[in-house]
Structures are given as C-alpha cells and as structure tokens.
Amino acid sequence: MPTESNPTGQQPPTAEAAVWAIRADEAARSVTHAFGRRLLFLPGTHIGAVSIPPRRFRSVFNPWHYWWQAHYVDCLVDTGRRELATKTRFDGDSRPSAGRLASRLVTTIRLRNFFRFVNNYYDDMAWLALSTLRLEQLAEETRKPGRRRNAYVRRKLTLQFDSASTDDLGGGTFWSTKRDFKNTPATAPVALYFARTDRRERAQALVNWLNSKLLHPQRALYLDGLRIRNGEIVLEDAVYTYNQGPILGALLELGGQENLERAAHLVEAVARELIVPGTQVIHGDGTGDGGLFTGILIRYLALAARDQRLPEATRETAGVLVLSTAGAFWDGRRESGGDPKEPIVVFSSSPLRPATETYPAGAAVELSTQLQAWMALEAAATLEL
Predict the structure, then answer these.
(1) Domain for residue 333, yes or no?
(2) CA–CA gap between residue 31 and residue 93 (Å, rounded)
(3) How many domains does the chain have?
(4) Does the predicted model carry a pTM greater than 0.90?
(5) In which band, very low, low, confident or very high, does the pLDDT at 13 lie, cut at 50, 70 and 90?
(6) CA dihedral 206, 184, 297, 9 (to 10 degrees)
C-alpha cells in the first residue's frame, strides 16, 4: 500500500518533476533565509518570524502561531525527503540540512511555548504531532539523532488526543480545552495521526463520526463542526478548503473500499466546488490562518494523485489541481530586494493574484502565505509527470 513516506514505488524523477524540485528548493531557501531566526538569539534554536519585516518591539509574548510553526516543520521535512533522495542539501553543504532545521524548530517550539508542547487547541497539537511523526521517519531513514525527542513529543500529544476524543456529541474530537466545539479541523488531523500510528480502529471511529455528522450528503464536502451553545447543538456549516485535506489523508491511510470510494468522491467535489471558476486552481483564503488553507489541501491532493488504488480519473483530477495551483503560485511570484546574490522570492497569498498586487514592495509578508506556496511546490515535486 502506498504511504506518505514511500509513495507508490517512486521512479527517478522526470525532467518536469526535477523543475518542480528546483522551484521547491527556491521556496525553501527563501522562507528559511527570510523568516527563520534564532529565539532570543539562543544558539541552536530556529523559529519562523510571523511576518517580515517584523514589527518593531515585538516581544516574546506576542502571537507566534504554534500551528504555523508545525506546518513549517512539515515543509522542512518535505525538503529533507528530497535531500535524502538527491544526496544534495537544499541550501548548500555549508548550511544546515532541512532535517536539522526541522529538528531545531521542534525544540524551539517547546521553548517558545514555555517548555511545553501542549497548548489549548487540539488541532494545533495534531498538526505538530503529524509533522514530528514525519520528522521521526526522516531521522530513521537518514540515521540522524533526534528520534527520542520526536517520540516524546508524540507521547505527550497522544494523551491529549485521547482525552479530547470523547463520546460527547456522538464522537469526534474537541477543538479546544473549552470543550464546547467538535469539528473537522481537529477531528480530521487526529484521525490521520491515529491511522499513521497504528490505532486504526480509533481513527476509523473518528472518520465515521465525520461522515455521519459533518459530511454534506449532496456536496460530498465536510462542514466545519458542531458547537454546544446555551445547551443546544449548533451546526457550523462553513466549508473550508483545508478541512478537506486531512480527512482525505485519513481516508487514504485507512484504505478499504468504502474509504477509498469516499476519497474519490471528495477529490471530485473539491474539483467541482473549491476552484476558481473557469480554472483548475484551488481558490485562496486570504492571509493570517487562511494563508495556509490552500497549501494544506494541495499537500493531501498530491497523496491522492499518487495513490494507485484510486481510479485513474480521480488521480488525474488530483494531479491537475496540484500542478495548476502550484503553477499559479510560481507564476505569480515576485523577487524582493535584499542581497542581490540571494533574492527573496515572495509568493502571493492568492494563487491567481500576482504577489506584486497582494504583497507590493514595502508591505509586510506573512509566514503562513509563504509556507502555503512552498507546500504546493513540494507537492508538485512529488508527482511523476
């Protein structure tokens, strides 16, 4: 069965896939150079600035977006996997590998979170658990240290997921420690995490809950969640792009006829409803947290595009969505000022709007949007073209 870490017996990359890899490396260098920095100037630390240029007098107590950093880890793991395959560091032999930066980032997340990995939002923790699981797998393949720490992260967070996945509202996972909202943003990545850590029965139960409570029967897309308000259950019926990604990943990871059929329907629904009209490009969701949404969905569509268990038409649809969206981000980029030898690439927050429009010269650029484009380029680089 194809897995996230070993997709369908990869062949040597085609010339076009190699081009995507070069583009992904450029995005990786841009983000790590422009946003990556030490925490309080401490040696051996690495964390992503929320925006560049940073606001003046930003203190350690300002928002730093735990879940953005978790996706930063994931992007570094993507790059690290390509480093492993090509035996070439993305940023040159004199600089740390992507895997080493990811390891430092995980350590720094704990320091910045006041020496804890636990926070108030179960979806945030699920994203970090998924990324550290992938980092642990990369460490095993590269025979690098750090596996004990990554396993420690996951043990701590697994306890949180067990406590948040209750029978209240018939199942599912709470979104926060307030325990008044069970939703797709938390339940889907927790289900995927359980599936990838051999707790398949628990994962399937969460998927079943999503299918019964939050799957729109006609649209075949997953709604946001069920909220407890004044003692009543209220359906939050918004449809967000990124919510479709981790449930797609969980369906593929679990496999089986019913899950795979659901995954195929979901890919078709995304292609029907979540694109910019007249194109095959997934629409953007702005800046802030929304600046990650499209990239997350593209990451999991790339898994579907590589999964030989899905119908050929479904794989082709997923692949077209990945390549079209990644291509739009690349075509809309601009190069900012800075060191002329190492220009910083700025990607748009919206795939079909140029970065000169969404991030004109002098505007602050958010980390979330740059991770999103990086994610999309990494996804495109995994496809056999």
Answers:
(1) no
(2) 18
(3) 1
(4) yes
(5) low
(6) -10
